[in-house]
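pinned: reference chain
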Amino acid sequence: MGMRALLRIHGQISHRDFLPGLSVGPRTQVQAGTLPKPSIWAEPSSMILWRSPVTIWCQGTLKAQEFRVDREGSTAPWYTMKPLEPGDKAKFPITHMTEHTAGRYRCYYQSPAGWSESSDPLELVVTGFYRKPYLSALPRPVMTSGGNVTLLCGSQEGFSRFILTKEGEHSPPWTLDSQQHRSGDSQALFPVGPVTSSHKWTFTCYGCYRNSPQTCSHPSDVLELLVTGKEPAGLEQLTPSARHKTRQTPRVVSRRNPQLWGGAMRVMSW
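pinned: its structure tokens
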């Protein structure tokens, strides 16, 4: 039988099944150390369909003796794991993702020199609670390498924010507050670039409400950008910020009406 781990839910201790190897220790205060902070990420993603499995990974140094993970705001015991070979990381499997396991997680590792600093936060979001939004590329999903594109995520559901994820990335998803278009749809614009033909550019977006930011919609249909050709002459020598200045901000039209969105937009680079 797999190890039974404890989760505190609505003030009560409830049992959830975790995979073998995960142990629960007494809650003790960890003093922030001087060791480099570990990296934390989730596989297959930090956006997980309700009741689906997810694994939290924590990676430190090769001399790590133990890893711990904590959920922000929880008074439940620590979850601890011994490192996997070659000894610099550990995994914390959650067999069934629900609204009770959603939240912000941090991890630490212990070495002979003491405890590390905490990792950056990892936000796990459970999805599948509302109808999927739509996702489109403006002006079009086919473009030349080195260019920028704006991704439009929208819905009739009145979501207060949208989350954009890129396939194959461990970096945090990009979250933006929504704007209401005169058509009634809530929408968000995600400027992305510069894109290159050496990478795959596949995106999905989700809609969420402000009063429950860690429970979101079903994923949108997948959008893949088709990147062809080479960057314009001289562009490869420019810094990303200089590249952005050489291009005009895309003008964006809504899904339904030809009303233009205005204003400067920050370009997201992956």
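why pinned: The helical segments are 240-245. DSSP finds one helix and 24 strands in the chain.
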